[in-house]
């Protein structure tokens, strides 16, 4: 249940230094060998390997009998190669911000017969913040599903070594009067569409929409969307920013209470308005979805196209479109009612052009 945050806590949060890296350390041991991996957020990080942050791609996994632990990724959006010991994602833990990052840890023993993963504590944050890390197996948490919160320490013991990897979900959230559950963008020619959802609102007058170019100019207020005032359920919002020049843009929302208090929500991606006529496959919306979502794409010229769907293992599930299309922008409505929850990949091909993106069906 959400609670009003006293003014003194808001003051503490505003005066806290948020410029430092947020880092979680996990010690991994087989009883004879020990290593430590680090994960978290950094304002200067990218989704790739950042050498200046100590992220270095590891050599290939050693043979059986040699102790090894590494953070890795099977997502094209987070290229980590053979794996790393440190995995920082872009973000700064600021007042009003909420971040979730997904990491995968893979391990194998040397002389030991089990693996123990020990959480070495959480960074110190103001009391308005909630943070947790969840350890879960890739079977939906059937074998391992353990969450550590705030000041917790503890460990996870893996006795069945056939379970050689876990999904780590790190969440850091400021418990503010509005909980934003989703904030995404899509581009149609030179129009940008912003869509966001809230799962909780208290005294929410509405949202100012701000935009700036990535060249570093000042934020501009470009619109206002009324809020629901008070809500305990899902609320959906949309704003269209039309007729933009070619370039790259950042967006944020300024959520304003009826008493004048405010907080910012930053779109955690750069929005690019491409030169007209470029081949483009856009991120589906909503994402995650259940059971329906929309896949948009843009064709620079007429030709045969193929839109296909694959499971997380790369197996073809279905050919969604296989036909001739004229140049233009298209929306395809996809219904996942017949599929189980999971990560899926959709691919668009036309001539020599091809793009692939991922989406999450969550039932």
Architecture overview:
- The chain is mainly beta.
- It has 3 domains: 17-174, no CATH class; 178-273, Immunoglobulins (Immunoglobulin-like, Sandwich); 280-361, Immunoglobulin-like.
- Helices cover 2% and strands 55% of the residues.
- The protein is built from 1 helix and 24 strands.
- The chain has one helix at residues 7-15; strands at residues 22-29, 34-42, 68-72, 86-90, 98-108, 115-119, 129-136, 145-149, 154-158, 165-174, 178-188, 191-213, 220-231, 235-241, 247-257, 262-266, 271-273, 280-281, 292-299, 303-311, 316-325, 328-335, 342-350, 353-361.
- The strands form 5 sheets. Strands 11, 12, 13, 14, 15, 16 and 17 form a 7-stranded antiparallel β-sheet that branches. Strands 4-2-1-6-9 form a 5-stranded mixed β-sheet, with no helix packed on it.
- A hairpin with a 4-residue loop joins β20 and β21.
- The protein is globular, with a radius of gyration of 22 Å.
- The model is unreliable at 1-19 (pLDDT under 50).
Number of domains as seen in the coordinates: 3
Instruction: Give the mean pLDDT.
Output: 88
Count of helical stretches: 1
Strand composition percent: over 45%
Work out the radius of gyration. 22 Å
Which terms would index this structure?
24 strands; Immunoglobulin-like; 363 residues; 3 domains; mainly beta; 1 helix; globular
Short synopsis of the structure:
With 363 residues, this protein is mainly beta. It contains 1 helix and 24 strands.
């Amino acid at each position: 249940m959400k609670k009003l945050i006293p003014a003194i806590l808001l003051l503490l949060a505003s005066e806290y230094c948020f410029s430092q890296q947020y880092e979680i350390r996990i010690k991994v041991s087989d009883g004879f060998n020990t290593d430590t991996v680090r994960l978290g957020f950094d304002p200067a990080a990218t989704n790739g390997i950042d050498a200046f942050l100590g992220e270095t791609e590891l050599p290939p996994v050693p043979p059986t009998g040699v102790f090894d632990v590494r953070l890795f990724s099977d997502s094209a959006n987070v290229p980590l190669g053979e794996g790393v010991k440190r995995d920082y994602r872009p973000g700064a833990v600021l007042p009003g911000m909420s971040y979730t990052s997904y990491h995968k840890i893979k391990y194998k023993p040397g002389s030991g017969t089990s693996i123990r993963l020990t959480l070495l504590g959480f960074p110190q944050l103001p009391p308005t913040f909630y943070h947790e890390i969840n350890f879960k197996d890739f079977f939906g948490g059937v074998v391992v599903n353990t969450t550590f919160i705030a000041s917790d320490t503890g460990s996870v013991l893996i006795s069945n070594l056939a379970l050689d990897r876990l999904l780590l979900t790190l969440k850091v959230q400021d418990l503010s009067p509005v909980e934003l559950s989703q904030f995404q963008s899509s581009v149609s020619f030179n129009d940008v569409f912003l869509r966001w959802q809230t799962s909780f609102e208290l005294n929410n007058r509405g949202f100012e929409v701000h935009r700036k170019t990535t060249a570093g100019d000042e934020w501009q207020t470009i619109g206002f969307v009324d809020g629901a005032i008070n809500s305990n359920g899902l609320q959906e919002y949309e704003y269209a920013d039309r007729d933009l020049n070619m370039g790259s843009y950042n967006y944020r929302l300024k959520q304003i209470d009826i008493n004048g208090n405010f907080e910012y929500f930053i779109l955690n991606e750069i929005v690019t308005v491409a030169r007209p006529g470029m081949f483009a496959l856009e991120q589906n919306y909503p994402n995650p979805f259940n059971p329906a979502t929309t896949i948009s794409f843009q064709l620079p010229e007429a030709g045969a196209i193929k839109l296909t769907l694959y499971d997380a293992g790369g197996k073809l599930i279905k050919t969604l479109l296989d036909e001739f299309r004229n140049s233009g922008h298209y929306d395809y409505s996809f219904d996942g009612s017949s599929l189980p929850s999971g990560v899926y990949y959709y691919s668009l091909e036309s001539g020599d052009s091809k793009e692939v993106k991922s989406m999450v069906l969550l039932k």
